[in-house]
Amino acid sequence: MITLTDIRKTYDGGQTFAVDGISLEISEGDLLAIVGESGCGKTTLMKSINRLNPITSGMIEVDGENISDLDPVMLRRRIGYVFQRIGLFPHMTVGENVATVPMLMKWDPATIDQRVNELLELVHLPPEQYRERRSKDLSGGQQQRVGLARALAARPSIMLMDEPFGALDPMTRDQLQNDFRQLHDQLNLTTIMVTHDMVEALLLADRIAVMANGKILQVGTPHELMTNPVNETVASFIETPKRQADQLEALSAPEDSA
Amino acid sequence: MNSLLLELAELPGNLSHHLLITLLSLSLGILISIPLALLAIRHKKFQYPVLTFVSVVQTIPSLALLALMVPVLVGVNFVLTPVTGISLPELGFIPTIVALTLYSLLPILRNSVTGLMNVEPAIIEAAKGVGMTPRQSLWKVELPLALPVIVAGIRTATVWTVGIATLATPVGQQCLGNFIFRGLQTRNWTAVLVGCVAAASLAILLDSLIGRLQTAIEDRKTKTIKRTGTVLASILVFGLAAPTLFALMTDTPQVDQRTSVANQNDEQPEPQENIVVGAKTFTEQFILAELMSERLQDAGLPVTKKKSLGSTIIFDGLTTGEIDVYVDYTGTIWANHMQREGTKAPWRINAEMAAWLEQEHGIRTLGNLGFENAYALAMRREDARRLGIETIADLAEHAPDLTIGGDFEFFGRPEWKALGQTYGLNFEEKTSYESTFMYEAIKRDEVDVISAFSTDGRIEAYELLVLKDPQQAIPPYDAVILLSKDVADHPLVIDSLEPLINGIDPLLMRRANHRVDRDDNKKPVNETAEWLWGEIAKSR
Fold it and tell me: Which of B194, B124, B159, B128 is nearest to B29 (CA)?
């Protein structure tokens, strides 16, 4: 359970706000997607949850604790984070990358060893084949699987994902999206995922928050958004995927014999 | 072939010292640069001053930086000694290490800063995001990623330092430069070549090893990293111990046992200290230093030789006791150190100089060797005859159409000023040369007049005429043996050097110089010193 109360973030001493008075609640087991165009403040908002980006005012609670009372380093180890541009450590092997957080938390080596294998299995990278590989020798999709395994290593209950599938080709993206949704349910995660891809959000998330200019325009289930957008802007986000879906539908319809 | 073997015999000694100074300076350079780089990365306000400082150091010519360390250490001692009782050696090892370390800072520091700054911000954010503290991020992510660039900096610094260390000879540090400086002064190209080849080989060896380490780090080849690292570490350990090992192996009393920290309170008899014999940068000095060393060693005294020292450095060394004995020339002391203008009768200069040295520095003037090695102006005999020049006064009339070459010191010396004032000399052009090349230049008609030493064997060999100085603008340059206050009353030292007093006439000295300097049938310095001693003994 994550509660955001009236979050504001300014970089210029209060003249403009990148995040402008946002309140939001994400219940346990929820997968929330934050959608919006570049610069709308969605990444800033998400990074404030593990204090990568400190907020100017407002309050964030994670499982009932005010995060400003917590040690930021400890907080981050508790929360899984998947980075936009993957962010694997290029000088480490796949196994070393996955083991990062358990190592920081000083688990015993045998437990870490076992956990790494388990995680690689979980993200469908057979450990005997991938563990010793260098991350730069993997494809984009494989790298993001490693990123996912690394984020899950210390059994976090919360995952933050910053456009995790953005850089992947469509086939790989689809596969990883499905795999992740499965993991999310299987591990009972609470996930916040930032994306600019409305289709991804609609197909993957339990709820979607649409953002523009640092404010949330609407929060709702995919169905609510599709059927009942609150204003023009939200409607315009929905319109493109809808039209594409219609066009695809038309293509697969039997040919008109007339 | 024979001369090559002679030079190679000196290789282990020179090389071992070269290894020590190079590797020690590099290690210190690494130990200083990397923390400085971290400081500069974490606190941006340090970045500019730190990088500017090391860049400025780099712009100082290396020979000058080495030489500058001598007066700097004199200054440090001026403050340090009264407070702590410790005085750092102002010649040799310490100034060399300080200068080389300073020199190695720039490439290592610059590469470390660049390497650390170029780590992708996304990766640093990822390190933070997974819950690393700034320190963990530095050690586990940023430094490992910057390491290949840092090692590349160390590689550059290594090659530079190996090369620049050859310039430590003039401040009194033994190194491969000993071959080069001695070779240049005595026209012994074998020696120059041995020094250059040895320094270049060492540079290439270290460069390729560190290069291999760098590639292995980039490719994360753990085995190669370990293997190459071990080889480099062994070279380091061996290099740092090399001079000591070499001294043990040869078992000669060559090790410099002097420690400048005063330990006079010991009850035990004072350990026999080495007598340090100094030599300036030219052949005659090498021969005389060798001759005096042999006399002292014959008397059972342990000797250390410091050759190729600049005029000022060697004199300062004598005043502080870093040097115990060397030969200087009355005119040099008179004009350069006593800062006297004009000249007087030779015997007056001799007496006043001896009194001044004794009073100011406790230095003892043991006596004249019997010859004068004056700064003089010389020109090709043929030209002199054609132009009707016999004296410097005659020369002054033709000077505007003539060019002059001087050794490195000449145009900065008071004698040159005195000549100008007395005769109104005004040449078309003046050029400074290393003295060997200065003689080449007059031989090849590239200059018309040179600043010669009156005992130089090449005056005869190149058919030069030494011009007369009717107004006595240049003071006399009688060669005198000077003793530091430490050995001023040392009976063995005095007894063993006394036979040299008035034992060498100008012709004998010129012949000795010529044996070493000539191109065919060259004799090594030590052989010439023995020959000279034979001649001295014969005439007694």
Answer: B159
Alpha carbons A5 and A59: distance in angstroms, whole number:
5
From the number of C-beta atoms within 10 Å of its C-beta (0-12, 13-18, 19+), residue B519 rates as exposed
Using CB atoms, pick whichever of A52, A73, A85 lies closest to residue B133. A73
Q: Do A104 and B123 touch (CB under 8 A)?
A: no
What span, in angstroms and rounded, lies between the C-alpha atoms of A148 and A98? Answer: 9
Encode burial over B264-274: b for 16+ CB neighbours within 10 A, e otherwise: eeeeeeeeebb
Q: What is the reported pLDDT for B307?
A: 83
Q: Is B12 left (phi over 0), alpha (psi -120 to 50) or beta?
A: alpha
User: Contact, A174 vs A200, CB < 8 A?
Assistant: no
Instruction: Give the Cα separation of B140 and B402 in Å (integer).
Output: 69
pLDDT score recorded for residue B496: 92
Q: Residues in chain B with pLDDT < 50?
A: 252-271
Q: Does A76 touch chain B (CB under 8 A)?
A: yes
Distance, in Å, from the CA atom of A221 to the CA atom of B156, rounded to the nearest integer, reads 61
What tokens were used for B198? 């040895």
User: CA-CA distances (angstroms) from residue B382 to A171, B386, B389, B441?
Assistant: 95, 6, 10, 16
What is the predicted pLDDT for the residue at B265? 40
Does the beta carbon of A155 lie under 8 angstroms from any beta carbon of chain B?
A: no
With CB atoms and an 8 Å threshold, state whether B131 touches A83. Answer: no
For the full predicted model, state whether its pTM sits above 0.80: no
In chain A, which residues have their Cβ closer than 8 Å to the Cβ of B219?
Answer: none
